Amino acid sequence: MSHPPTTASSPARTYSPKSLNVLLWLVATGFFMQTLDSTIVNTALPSMARSLGESPLRMQSVVIAYSLTMAVMIPVSGWLADKLGIRRVFFSAILIFALGSLLCANAHTLSQLVVWRVMQGVGGAMLLPVGRLAVLRVFPAERYLSALAFVAVPGLIGPLIGPTLGGWLVKIASWHWIFLINVPVGVAGCIATFIYMPDAKNPDTARFDLKGYLLLALGMVAITFSLDGLAELGLQHATVLVLLILSLACFVAYGLHATRAERPIFPLDLFQIHTFSVGLLGNLFARIGSGAMPYLIPLLLQVSLGYSAFEAGLMMLPVAAAGMFSKRLVTNLIMKHGYRKVLVVNTVLVGLMMASFLLTSLHQPMWLRLVQLAIFGSVNSMQFTAMNTLTLKDLGTGGASSGNSLFSLVQMLSMSLGVTVAGALLTTFTDLIPRASTANPLPAFHATFLCVGIITSGSAWIFAQLAPDIRTTARKTDPSERT
After folding, report:
1. In Å, what is the CA distance from 173 to each residue of 44, 97, 176, 365, 367?
2. For the chain, how many helices (H) and strands (E)?
3. What is the sign, positive or negative, of the torsion defined by CA atoms of 21, 27, 31, 37?
4. Residues 427, 231 contacting (CB under 8 angstroms)
5. Which CATH class name applies to 267-483?
6. Domain residues of the chain, as ranges?
7. Which CATH superfamily is domain 1-208 in?
8. pTM
9. Where in the cell is it found (predicted)?
10. What is the pLDDT of residues 191-232, one digit of tens each?
């Protein structure tokens, strides 16, 4: 039976232990599916390309459409939950996500697949923020940390197993099942949401900053289309330049708007927090390279080295395993050397490891390739952990909500930009390098990895602006943000 509506002040004891456990599993599963679908398609792109009659080097829009939509929708999801009710919005999110997945599986052209991935991203963007809000509304304060930690774990696992699971599904069935597996989960999730999810609303919900939201959304879409314009969309140089100028104008206009608006969607006061501003900008630029690698590596292995989708997925396991292990090391390094030294050195190391993939060849020993992937996974994971804790450590209670939301937006935007930049570079070098071609694009991959490594290493100067004595974490942050 469904529970009566509750408010933010309703006591958690009105819910039975069974209801609380089901709610946790429901939110955790939603977060898992959301994060899983950000990486599960990467190993299946060549198979999708063959099925849709496209070049595997021009399939980046399938990844970009999902992550960019997530970035655009994140700012509005929490407001919708407060205004319309948690149960209604979470139910709609699961339904839209599952329906988008079903339509993706039935797409017959690349354009159709991209449109349905956008729909999938709309639903996926609301799953974590709204689900986390439900947990905070229902669980007593003493159980917040453990409940949020439980919800966070599947979200950490999803991106790690995504490439391998995607390759396995392609091997035993077809790429369509990457999306079809979401449908039964979505049906079960809708039923559980209707029965167990609280329907809390916030009667004091402030008016949504629609003008600020539209400026940010238009800016994000314009910069993504401009970067992808020459590669996949075939836009003229003048059009690309106009889109770049438009994106810059939108971001500047938002800054001017936020100084006058009574309640801007993201207050500019957040940038007065030194660690937050440096961490956020560092995340944006350093994650461009990190967002490109999960797209580039499986494509390199399949298109240039002859791996199957499943074999390419298995090759991503050393990246995930080394990443999980290295998370235990970075805290001690930060306490000993400080955030600035750790992030400057590690950012350069991440960039060098990305550039090291220009040495990839058909004759490279397997053990060396595995070591290379493991080292990259280790330093990349340390980078994420250090950047994320730096960004969130000094937000405090007042800026936690808007700061976390802006941070989530930047994470998804940088993932979208990473794939966009990688796709544009790969297409450009395939056309420019005489030895590169669609049949043998290995030289184009080499040049792309080098450029991505340079971009990442260059972002180290942002972290160099930190004070050398910043070491401790000022507050405990939501574990679900540390991905």
Report:
1. 12, 22, 8, 30, 30
2. 18, 0
3. positive
4. yes
5. mainly alpha
6. 1-208, 209-264, 267-483
7. MFS general substrate transporter like domains (1.20.1250.20)
8. 0.85
9. Cell membrane
10. 988 888 877 777 777 788 999 999 999 999 999 888 877 666
